[in-house]
Design goal:
Blueprint (H helix, E strand, L loop, with lengths): L1 E3 L5 H15 L5 H17 L2 E6 L2 E9 L3 E6 L8 H12 L2 E7 L3 H9 L3 E7 L6 E8 L1
Antiparallel strand pairs: 1-2, 2-3, 3-4, 5-7, 6-7
Helix pairs in contact: 1-2
């Protein structure tokens, strides 16, 4: 089941965010992400987030900012089982255009978005992490 996040679920969402982010970005020191924690939490409080549940437990979520910029996170034990794909397809049904920023070194995420029809439209250096990232885009 996919639904909008309730504000009282923010701590669970943040647990998923920090765990998934650290494990999928091993090329960036964990301390970088820990410093971003409160900033990300505040953004998530102000941005629509869709959670996906299995047996009434949140196993992942997707955020969408400015009606097109997305990020998808799934707990480690459920990655590769289709939950991220369900979230992407859910958003593709509701929006005409989606974009995602993905670090070039995060080959798993790049493959995931390309599998769902996203194409690389530009590359740039992330000003905070100093790592190169791709801007991927999908549109109907």
């Amino acid at each position: 089941m996919i639904r909008l996040m309730n504000r009282n679920e923010i701590d669970k969402i943040m647990d998923i965010w920090i765990t998934a982010t650290v494990s999928s970005h091993r090329f960036i020191d964990q301390s970088f992400w820990l410093k971003q924690y409160h900033k990300v939490k505040q953004k998530l409080m102000d941005t629509p987030a869709y959670v996906i549940c299995e047996q009434n437990h949140i196993v992942g979520f997707a955020v969408i900012a400015q009606d097109k910029y997305i990020a998808v996170y799934v707990i480690s034990g459920k990655q590769g089982k289709g939950f991220g794909s369900l979230l992407i397809e859910y958003l593709k049904q509701r929006f005409n255009e989606l974009q995602a920023e993905v670090y070039m070194k995060n080959t798993v995420a790049l493959h995931f978005f390309k599998k769902h029809g996203f194409e690389i439209v530009s590359q740039q250096k992330n000003l905070d992490s100093h790592q190169m990232q791709n801007l991927l885009q999908w549109h109907k």
